[in-house]
Amino acid sequence: MRRFRTITFYLLVSGAFILAIYTASAYELPKWFSFNKKNSLQEWQEKIFKNKVIYTIEGTDKNGYLQARSDKSCSGLVYKIRFKPKESSIMSWQWKVEKFPSKAGTGSEIGGWIEKDDYAARVYVIFPSWLFTSTRSLEYVWAEDIEEDTIITSPYFGNIKLMVIESGKQNMGQWVYEERNIYEDYKKCFGSEPPMAGAIALMTDTDNTLSTAEASYKEIRVGYKK
Amino acid sequence: MNKNNKRKRAFANKLHKEIFWLVFIAALVPAAIVMVLLYYLIFNITAEQMVIPEAIAYNLIPAAKKVIVILLFSAPICTAAILFFAYKISHRIIGPFDRIVRELRECTEGKKKDHIVIRKNDKFTPLVDKINKLLDKL
């Protein structure tokens, strides 16, 4: 009986410890990524899909930013952060596109074409699930040739929705500020309440169009309320 | 064995059936749990590491689908093998057990005076030896 109590006690303590670690990440909100320090990328994980995109920190002090140069490649930077979109719904950032991937000769239809699923700049909010096939993702993209406010289902996976929030070349080479309500955008894209978000990611990719692209990101703020 | 002596029923008695199911479930349930856990853990942990949904969709989901197909084909074969071995094991246990009971009954009824004999590879040999020693003393 005593042994049983001891085992139960240790199990409860272990459970509480695991729960504490699991929930701890939710308390770092709101999270701000300024990219003002040379080692700013240390807290990000690089995930290579097809070849490596060159991500570098440029500028210093208050003018730092993250620059991405993609040459027929696709890799992203991921930051794992757990938050409830209903409680901390706002995410904002600044981005700038210097060069769009070339989509000439890859078809003109919107969506459904893996060959043209490249964007100069993407910002992801990833919603993991207990079953990996149910993982969902909301991607904010700056597209050259798709109208603003278009929602596209990824040609790779139905659980990935791309929202075109910036379009065309008129703001090319300029910093553009974006502020999104993740909760509302998720509902708009998936038609249901969002689950807990598990990560954010940035990507500039050109693996499908086999071209080159350049974009920059800065002042990313995640998980706050207005 | 004579053709006429062959048992027509799959199970000799209720105990035979119970032992068969016990062996079958004892082998099948852990195997199924390990299979499901391995599948879930391998693919979920890999997905957790990949993070980028396109990478999951492009690399992991096709692999997971292939594994599911393999499992769907192999699961009935494995289940049949477990059924076969469960039946064999239950036979190995219940065969000598029935024989001991039958021969003991014959001894107590006075129909049989000599030792209980079981096959070489049957279970319960130490038990039969002890019973034979007891019969000698009686």
Write structural notes for this entry.
The complex is a heterodimer of chains A (226) and B (138). Chain A is mainly beta and 226 residues long. Chain A has a single domain, classed as Galactose-binding domain-like (Jelly Rolls, Sandwich), CATH 2.60.120. Helix content of chain A is 14%, strand content 41%. Chain A contains two helices and 13 strands. Chain A has helices spanning 2-24, 182-190; strands spanning 31-33, 45-50, 54-58, 65-71, 74-83, 90-99, 121-127, 136-143, 151-153, 160-167, 176-181, 197-203, 212-224. Chain A has a seven-stranded mixed β-sheet with strand order 2-5-12-7-8-10-9. With 138 residues, chain B is an all-alpha fold. Chain B has one domain (13-137). Helices cover 77% and strands 0% of the residues of chain B. Chain B has helices spanning 14-50, 53-108, 125-137. In chain B, α1 (14-50) runs antiparallel to α2. Chain B is rod-shaped and about 80 Å long. The A-B interface holds A 45, 47, 49, 74, 76, 78, 80, 124, 126, 128, 130-133, 135-137, 154, 156-157, 159-160, 199, 201, 203 and B 43-44, 46-48, 50-58, 60-61, 64.
List segments of chain B where confidence is low: pLDDT < 50 over at least 5 consecutive residues: none
The tally of strands of chain B reads: 0
Helical residue percent band of chain A: 10-25%
Q: What name goes with the CATH superfamily of chain A?
A: Galactose-binding domain-like
Sheet bearing the most strands of chain A, described? 7 strands, mixed
Q: What is the count of helical runs of chain A?
A: 2
Strand share of the residues of chain A? 35-45%
How many angstroms does the end-to-end distance of chain A come to? Answer: 54 Å
Number of domains of chain B: 1
Strand and helix order of chain B: HHH
User: Please, how many helices of chain B?
Assistant: 3
Number of domains of chain A: 1
Helix content of chain B: over 70%
Radius of gyration of chain A: 19 Å
Give unreliable regions of chain A as ranges.
Answer: 108-112
The biggest beta sheet of chain B is recorded as:
none
- Across the major sheet of chain A, the strand order is 2-5-12-7-8-10-9
Sheet/helix structural class of chain B: mainly alpha
Q: Which oligomeric form is depicted?
A: heterodimer
